[in-house]
DNA sequence: GAAAAGTTTGCAACATTATAACATTTCCGA
DNA sequence: TCGGAAATGTTATAATGTTGCAAACTTTTC
């Protein structure tokens, strides 16, 4: 899948969303699963924000569309998207974000900025490796890794230096 | 603080709880904060299980005590215990567990068994180090790390081999 | 040792996040 | 075009977490 810009850097986000949707269609076709209109719209809504979106935020936006949606609609779409590696759930935020490493087999590692709320997904083989070694040392059979790092992104660090308070994009 | 047995291994858990409470009293005295009866009881309830306990589980047990408790009582006690490093919240489970590394400055790493539900807290400097390096590479100022690993503990792996299904202690 | 100030708890209501259960519709292959 | 599987709609409810204010208790200060 195509590379994408860091959320910290200015970029044409429309393109970024369009690309994500195109990738998603390809992936679903390859996997022979159905990216239905609801699922696609949910994915789009999530991608339109670099900040994680709560299930009820998605629900509200679907309602704005005129879609007569209830919670299960959203949760089912999110489950589907997660299972197909198109979005990640951030456990520490109860929120969802578009996966920027679709296709690759990866252990998501998320840098969550407490200032602006943006989240950057990383793949750090050295971290995954160290985790694997540590788990093996305990004879623990690793299945799923949740790694979420809260802190300040570069931009919010400098804003804080200037104003004494983190920014809010 | 004193070393404690792995949850996977048989041990005298009463002693283990007593020790945790003794340690907690010392820590609170040193830090000049108040380990009130409610807070102490909540800590005890959490320690009595090696499995993470939900806030409402704690609440139910307080009610069994005859304590006339409401959710804020429990959440406030849990906040206090967390702030003083006596318990950890496991975000992926919405549950709490006693900290086995009180006193040490550490990045908790949790091995969560999907079979028996036990959780082992580890400190792995190689993992913390790799995370720190990865965050620095993005100029990200790290504040708090959530690292939770789901899988199977050694015991549940062997049970699964024998029976085809994970055990439930 | 009494009043003031700060901390902790009680309590009621409410907000947010997530799921269950079952009916209905849509899709797709035979 | 029919029949089964997948997806969605709908209603209700469960599970988790918070706000706001008043009362009780502790510590400090005079």
What does this structure look like?
The structure is a homodimer of 169-residue chains. Chain A has 169 residues and is an alpha+beta fold. In chain A, 45% of the residues lie in helices and 17% in strands. Chain A has one domain (13-163): Arc Repressor Mutant, subunit A (Orthogonal Bundle). Chain A contains six helices and five strands, in the order H-H-H-H-E-E-E-E-H-E-H. In chain A, a hairpin with a 4-residue loop joins strand 1 and strand 2 (95-98). In chain A, helix 2 (37-47) crosses helix 4 (71-83). The longest helix of chain A has 19 residues, at 13-31. The radius of gyration of chain A is 17 Å and the shape is globular. In chain A, 34% of the residues are buried. The model of chain A has no long low-confidence stretch (mean pLDDT 90). Chain A binds chain B through residues 91-92, 109, 111, 113-114, 120, 122, 124, 126-127, 129-131, 133-135, 138-154, 157, and chain B through 91-92, 109, 111, 113-114, 120, 122, 124, 126-127, 129-131, 133-135, 138-154, 157. Strand 5 of chain A pairs antiparallel with strand 5 of chain B, so a sheet runs across the interface. Chain A binds a DNA duplex (30 and 30 nucleotides) through helix 4.
């Amino acid at each position: 899948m195509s590379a994408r810009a860091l959320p910290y850097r200015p970029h044409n986000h429309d393109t970024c969303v369009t690309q994500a949707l195109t990738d998603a269609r390809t992936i679903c076709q390859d996997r022979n699963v159905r990216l239905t209109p609801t699922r696609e719209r949910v994915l789009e809504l999530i991608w339109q924000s670099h900040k994680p979106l709560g299930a009820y935020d998605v629900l509200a936006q679907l309602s704005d569309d005129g879609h007569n949606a209830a919670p299960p609609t959203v949760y089912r779409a999110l489950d589907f998207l997660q299972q197909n590696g198109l979005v990640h759930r951030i456990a520490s935020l109860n929120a969802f974000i578009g996966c920027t490493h679709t296709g690759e087999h990866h252990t998501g590692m998320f840098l969550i900025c407490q200032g602006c709320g943006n989240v950057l997904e990383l793949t750090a083989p050295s971290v995954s490796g160290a985790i694997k070694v540590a788990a093996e040392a305990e004879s623990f059979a690793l299945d799923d890794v949740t790694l979420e790092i809260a802190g300040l992104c570069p931009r919010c660090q400098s804003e804080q230096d200037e104003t004494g308070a983190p920014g809010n994009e």
